[in-house]
Amino acid sequence: MASAQRVWWPPVSEPAEDSDDTPRPRRRSRRALVAGGVAVGLALVSGGALAHRSRSAARRAQASALASQAYERLREGRIGSALKLATDARKLDPGGRDPAYAWMHATGLALLEDAGGAKEAVGFMNEARRLGAAGTDLAFCLVVGAVAVRNDKLARRTLAQHEGQGIVEDAFYAFARGAALDLCCDGAAAEAYESSLSLWADAVLPRLRLARAHLLRGKTTDAKEAVAPLPRDAIGRLVIEAAAARLETRRVAPAPPFGSAAIAEAPRALRPIGLALLVQADDPNAALDAAMDDVDSPLVAVLSGKLAMIGGDLVSAEAAARAAQRMRPESPDVAAFGVQLALARGDLDRARAIAEESGDAATTAIVAAIDAYERKAPEKIREAVEAAMDAGVSPWRLANEARGTLGDGPPPVVAVVPKGAPLPPLWAALEEGEPWADVVLFDAAFAAGDTRTCQAVVDRWKEPSKPRDARRALLTGKPPSIR
User: Fold this and answer.
1) Is-contact 319 351, C-beta < 8 A?
2) Is the separation of the CB atoms in 447 and 481 below 8 Å?
3) Residue 440 vs residues 281, 351, 399, 415: alpha-carbon distances, Å
4) Rg for the chain (alpha carbons), in Å?
5) Segments in 391-436 forming alpha helices (H)
6) pLDDT mean across residues, the chain
């Protein structure tokens, strides 16, 4: 029988008695463990805080860079891109100063030059106050709000308050001040835009606004000089130059070098003007009504109407006149255009009503002279001319030709001159859209027995009116002579 294997176990020693000198390894190792854990925890927390601070710093740096890019886009006139960059910057750094101010300036200019109305303007001003805007910055926001809601009286009052407060002007406030003065039909708008341009090197928006301000007041040469530094194919420059050429030549040709798609990319300040250059009398789809939503000044509506009228689209011109009338019915410029349009449509009664309501000396003098002509009263034409000169305004340009047609002076020349030769005064006035030139030319030609010229004039009339109907009937021999 095999013997069983023996299993060896280590001897069990007796436990030693405790004494003061006996180390206590279990208690000391617990303290070390706790201390080590705390150290590790502190290290983790410290590392996390450092990482958080590092990420926050990176976000702030990125937000600041986006804000700088937003200002660069504003300088280039790319408002939509600037607003997106500024909005993204605020998302990265909600409490940052640079993103907040970039957003404030981009949003303000967007309200003036891109899109937005009363609701957006109120929200913008409230947010600016929440961000702590003060001084010039808050003044900019308040002026933008007044212009965006199209309240000329509020805009004028706000500017007066800022002047009393001694607001120090920067480029953005000067731009907004110019927009407010444009809304009020104030010629000082050009000076405000010049100030903005001097404070904002190479900026596109104040340059375009300056050119438009000159254009609104008939200073076509100054308008073209203002946009000369811009690229030749820049849409803003193309619109200004095309509008200036039409005002100077009173002709449609040549056609504008742009289409409606390009106009959509232009600043709001130029869109109605650009579309007015594209409308045509025989194209009902090209009416100017929709563009009037972008009109930020009664003078812009008047200019757009004039451009449309030169292009032969009296329907669009009428839409522009209504828009101007809604914005500032008391403006002499608005009244003068209303009279000009009424006379272009042969509606002397309406022209007389507008002139009487406006009380404007220049408008009243022209209507009085034409009214005297229709009443066959040459002496009254002389009186109207004298009254205009006494008031320091321009008299009716055709007063002498009108008196000559009525037998009070030499008759005007009605014969067609050879091509290339200077046009006689009456023909030149007709081509340039002088009020009642068509009627006077018809009467002078009829008195001279030139029925061919009479028919050419009648062919121009697209709309009926009492004076025109009388001349048409004359040509068929139905009524007695009007003289």
Assistant:
1) no
2) no
3) 24, 17, 10, 14
4) 38
5) 399-405, 425-431
6) 87
Secondary element (H or E) of residue 134? none
**What number of other Cβ atoms are within 10 A of residue 270's Cβ?**
25
Distance CA 286, CA 239 (A): 17
Q: What is the per-residue pLDDT for 119?
A: 87
Q: How many CB atoms neighbour CB 94 within 10 A?
A: 11
Residue 199, classified by CB atoms within 10 Å of its CB into exposed (0-12), middle (13-18) or buried (19+), is: middle
Q: Do 49 and 58 contact (CB within 8 A), yes or no?
A: no
Task: Let me know how many helices (H) and strands (E) the chain has, helices first.
Answer: 24, 0
Domain extents for the chain? 231-328
Q: For residue 93, what is the enclosing H or E element?
A: none
Residue whose C-alpha is closest to residue 211's, from 195, 198, 227: 227
pLDDT (0 to 100) of residue 254 = 82
Asked if residue 443 lies in contact with residue 405, where contact means CB atoms within 8 angstroms, the answer is yes
| CA dist., res. 306 & res. 250, Å (int) | 10
What is the b/e burial string over 9-36, where b = at least 16 CB atoms within 10 angstroms of the residue's CB? eeeeeeeeeeeeeeeeeeeeeeeeeeee
Of all residues in the chain, what percent are helix, strand and coil, respectively (each to 5)?
70, 0, 30
Question: DSSP code of 355?
Answer: H
Our CA dihedral for 178, 180, 184, 185, rounded to 10 degrees, sits at 30
Rounded to whole angstroms, the Cα distance separating 262 from 253 reads 19
Query: Under a CB-based contact definition with an 8 Å cutoff, are residues 433 and 404 in contact?
Result: no
What are 343-357's pLDDT values in tens digits? 999 999 999 999 998
What's phi and psi for 170, nearest 5 deg? Answer: -115, -175
Cα(219)–Cα(128) distance, integer angstroms:
37
> In residues, how long is the chain?
483
- The proportion of the chain whose per-residue pLDDT surpasses 90, expressed as a percent, equals 66
Helical (H) or strand (E) element with 77: none
CB proximity list for 272: less than 8 A, separation 6 or greater: 288, 291, 292, 294, 295, 300, 301, 304, 320
CA angle 177, 181, 187 (to 5 degrees): 125
Measured distance CA(243)–CA(248) in Å, rounded: 9
**Cα–Cα distance measured from residue 196 to residue 216, given in angstroms and rounded to the nearest whole number:** 19
Instruction: Name the 3-class secondary structure at 334.
Output: helix
pLDDT of residue 477: 77
Helix (H) or strand (E) holding 249: helix 235-249
Q: What would the two tokens of residue 462 be?
A: 């697209």
Torsion over CA of 363, 369, 374 and 379, rounded to 10 degrees? 160
One-letter amino acid identity for 447?
A
Residues 421 and 423: their CA atoms lie apart, in Å, by 6
Pull the structure tokens for residue 122. Answer: 């109120």
Under DSSP, the state recorded for 416 is: P
pLDDT tens digits along 113-140:
977 778 899 999 999 999 989 999 999 9
